[in-house]
Amino acid sequence: MASASGGTPPGPPPGTRILVVGGGYVGMYTALRLQRKLKQRLRSGDTEIVVVAPEPYMTYQPFLPEAAAGSISPRHVVVPLRHVLPHCTIVIGEARSIDHTKRTATVTTLASGEDGMGALEIEYDELVLAPGSVSRTLPVPGLADHGVGFKTIEEAIGLRNHVIEQMDIASATRDPAVRDAALTFVFVGGGYAGVEALAELEDMARYTARYYHNIKAEDLKWILVEATGRILPEVGESLGLYAVRELRGRNIDVRLDTRLDSCESRIAVLSDGSRFPTRTLVWTAGVKPAPLLAATGLPLDERGRLRCTARLTVEGTEHAWAAGDAAAVPDLTAAEPGRTTAPNAQHALRQAKVLADNVVAALDGGPLTEYRHSYAGSVASLGLHKGVAHIYGRRLKGYPAWLIHRMYHLSRVPTFNRKARVLAEWTLAGLFKREIVSLGSLEHPRAEFELAAGRRPRPGGDDCQ
């Protein structure tokens, strides 16, 4: 078996090889459970688990807004795959295509462009597809040039640094137009990502403003643009209306039934005719399945997700499994026939457990279990001490909902190590003042050295600007 720590790419399978594509919720938790249940086979070399992931860590995405606000350190939002999966072979790279008839996956790694040997061809016996999703963008003029997403820890920390940097620009400029654009922040998308990111960052920026001699909290302009008539649809209509009132009560401009038509030249043009010069445009208007799925030859639904059975097998295909955002899994608890489970962490974590158990059962020739889970509810943060929650039919708002939000996600973040560190940071944050430092130079660490060496630094790509 190839070594997970030595960096040796996997060769021909020594026995049964399980290939897990993706290192997110489903990928990591499936591999973790397989690692536990197949411990003896892994030690003997009869079975090998190979995990292919683009990053060497799993990101706990519900904590991204708090990381952006500085309530949690970035390193505590991610879980190193090599640490939690010591008995798996970890390959950091991108799966480009899969030929399931030949049971091979084509993977490019960081070394593919360095050693001249091209992409890896990884053979497998059982395939677990969990590549997750990517941001769903629209052909909005200027979006690719000036927008930033909010799906990764790099985007979250970059956005935090950017917001504080814009306040520095506004404080120093003598041009009213530059100041106005720097203090205008536009978020597109009223789902979890958009609302929580905006609420946490607005909280952070309002606190930070007290340390500027010429910027007041009311000088900052926050705009939330949502194409439908409500935000946070998962928590229900009444709590969604409460969230709108809460945000508007903080002078956040919530625009429902409104679309972003253009953001060329750093001017956000909305479908209601409004125009906002801005140096910050955050796009959180939905996700779509990973592009890899189109290169698998496996059956897809109309939204580009893998068609799956309730046993989490790919429909009409043997030795192929899927779950999470990339899979259309029948919802056996739904009253309406034909519904699929929602693409959220609640289902992904539970599907990973069933998927791993079914893979082991298939290897042993045993019966497979159907995935069945009634949706428990939703929680969302609206900033420090503010939130909404709809749990088992009960609706909560304000501080109780915020507390439940924290308790729930603390219980779900992987490993005791991460739970302890996050809890310690929350405790310290309650005792001391917020950190208001921008470390934007982290994005271009060689800039100062290049300048000292007489070379003009390459222009930064700080273009959520």
From TrEMBL:
One of its GO terms (molecular function) is oxidoreductase activity. Keywords: FAD, Flavoprotein, NAD, Oxidoreductase. The keyword Oxidoreductase applies. Residues 17-351 form the FAD/NAD(P)-binding domain. InterPro entries: FAD/NAD-bd_sf, FAD/NAD-binding_dom, NDH-2. It comes from the Bacteria. Its EC number is 1.6.5.-. Pfam families: Pyr_redox_2. Signal peptide: none annotated. Belongs to the NADH dehydrogenase family. This is NAD(P)/FAD-dependent oxidoreductase.
